[in-house]
TrEMBL record, chain A:
Official protein name in the record: Acyl carrier protein
Domain Carrier: 3-80
Annotated Gene3D superfamilies: ACP-like (1.10.1200.10)
From TrEMBL, chain B:
Keyword Zinc among record annotations: no
Species per Swiss-Prot/TrEMBL record: Streptomyces capoamus
UniProt keyword Transferase present: yes
Domain Ketosynthase family 3 (KS3): 6-410
InterPro entries xrefs: Beta-ketoacyl_synthase (IPR000794), Ketoacyl_synth_C (IPR014031), Ketoacyl_synth_N (IPR014030), PKS_Beta-ketoAc_synthase_dom (IPR020841), Thiolase-like (IPR016039)
Name this polypeptide is given: Polyketide beta-ketoacyl synthase 2
UniProt record similarity statement: Belongs to the thiolase-like superfamily. Beta-ketoacyl-ACP synthases family.
Amino acid sequence: MPQITVEELAALMKKAAGVTVSPEQLKEQPEMGFDVLGVDSLGLLGIVGELENTHGTPMPVDAERCKTPQQFLDLVNSTLMAGA
Amino acid sequence: MSEPKDRHAAITGIGVVAPNGTTTGTFWKSTQEGLSVLDRITREGCEHLPLKVAGEVRAFDPADTIEERFLVQTDRFTHYAMAAADFALDDARLGPGSVPDAPYSIGVVTAAGSGGGEFGQRELQQLWGKGSRFVGPYQSIAWFYAASTGQVSIRRGFKGPCSVVASDEAGGLDALAHAARAVRRGTDVIVAGSTEAPLAPYSMVCQLGYGELSREPDPSRAYRPFTEGACGFVPAEGGAMLVVEASGTARARGARIRAVVAGHGATFTGASRWEESRHGLAQAVRQALREADCAPEEVDVVFADALGVPAADRAEALAIADVLGDRAGRVPVTAPKSGIGRGYCAAPVLDTAAAVLAMEHGLIPPTPNVFDVSHDLDLVTGGARVAELRTALVLSRGLMGSNSALVLRRGTAQ
């Protein structure tokens, strides 16, 4: 399965949580917390839901508990890899 | 009243997002000029409904003042609340650091009747159109009637007592009274009020069952309370938030006390039992006057509920006479909401804002679209009336039977 890129995550953060952040910023500061970026728990849940609908596969329960974009991408991409 | 002198509940800030003005200044200008902005409803998906006229907020872009991350998770009614709260706090000059022990000394109280119907409809359409996986998580909070209190407190970081009053249209006044009580009990500041957004297809369909709703398609005839032509009320959106603050705190930081919430009373007489609302409303006024230590002779102006239903108008006119006695026919009464519509819980909060502004300007705004008064009331019509106003009485009734009255005293430190 295709991996989720920082570009895709940035677009989802905008769509689901109304948070504008550039892919470059996510690459440079991958450990900056979702809370600092302004994505709350419901916003992250919305991002997970969008990904599940787009990729047609469930994400791990822990995805919505990730604290940073890096953690989130690592977890989600390893799941997609395993399912491929 | 029994509370210490420095704990009167002062109004130090007013924030308005109304059909006739999206700043307090334009709201007052339109209100005192008696401008009617009632018009045909233009919202998408509402064209086929038998409700044709309302007061829409048109000159307002929430993105001008609210961050996108708050916009995506909230309904229009909360957009209005966040903006109005900002305006009120700016008006009160309440920035970070201006109140001791903040943020715990600042709370939020709102009332809401219809909640976030537009947001809810969008997500329910996703549910039935695509499936449960396509419903956004913010549905869980956005359409809840408590959303505005929560989002205002989160966005501004207020951690004092927060609550939501659910008591029908009169809840707008009850929210202000609740704020006043919280202030008297020791909280320095409460941001209080109500905003509503009932002009979306789902929300409008919910209202169609109200027998009191006007179906008159002519905006100039749709809402004419206290007249022979009274044929119901028209809804409105928007509302107001006020800063209710301990008078001592306000004085200590040099804030202007615009008015004092002096007394409140609330009763319940049952849904659409308008004849019985006479006694309920009169009793609410008596309670409010008693709490304010105010004699009926001291009331200088009445902001009427003015439902626009003949039986309800008659009951209100009689209630005013019951309380004010011989003076009833000579005390000016006004209902500016006939020019903007009734924003459910927000309506009496806008009336309260107008009453404060009226006392400040010594000017009673008129009742738009009303010319032939058919009750024994000194209803102010046509143009604004100059008057020395020290005490204002604001009345509100809900379709489900709540009656409330609020007594306001003019501020002293100008």
